[in-house]
Design brief:
This is DUF1820 domain-containing protein. By secondary structure, this protein is mostly beta strands. It is built from one helix and six strands; from the N terminus they run βββαβββ. The chain has one domain. Strands 1, 2, 3, 4, 5 and 6 form a six-stranded antiparallel beta sheet that branches. A hairpin with a 6-residue loop joins strand 2 and strand 3. The longest helix has 9 residues.
Length: about 110
């Protein structure tokens, strides 16, 4: 019997947007302070409706074998059972706008 293939949903901040992607492998990697993500999974092409944010992600990660996300940018990582994956990009703060993103480097102005 083959072992169950794990599937992870990774949410992270990237330039004022929240990326939600799916991958088969997530680890702390060899670079301190970064999460290593590889073996990306995108949705099936059986649907007639095309999600522009998913298409943008497919284009952005087209030739990427493995990438690293700074630890402070990661919102959460979930192991999921879903066979229906929909990677997406949405505005930071969620749909309701009630969640404030954690401040990142460069978002503070020094006091004068």
């Amino acid at each position: 019997m083959s072992a169950k293939q794990r599937l992870y949903r990774i949410q992270f901040n990237n330039q004022g947007q929240v990326y939600e992607i799916y991958a088969r492998s997530v680890s702390h990697g060899s670079m301190m302070g970064f999460i290593e993500v590889e073996k990306l999974v995108f949705g099936e092409k059986s649907s007639v409706v095309i999600d522009p944010s998913e298409e943008k992600l497919k284009t952005e990660f087209a030739d990427v074998e493995r990438f690293y996300v700074p630890l402070h940018s990661v919102i959460r990582i979930d192991e999921v059972n879903s066979k229906q994956v929909t990677p997406r990009i949405h505005a930071a703060g969620g749909e309701s706008g009630k969640v404030t993103p954690f401040p990142t480097y460069g978002s503070f102005e020094p006091k004068k």
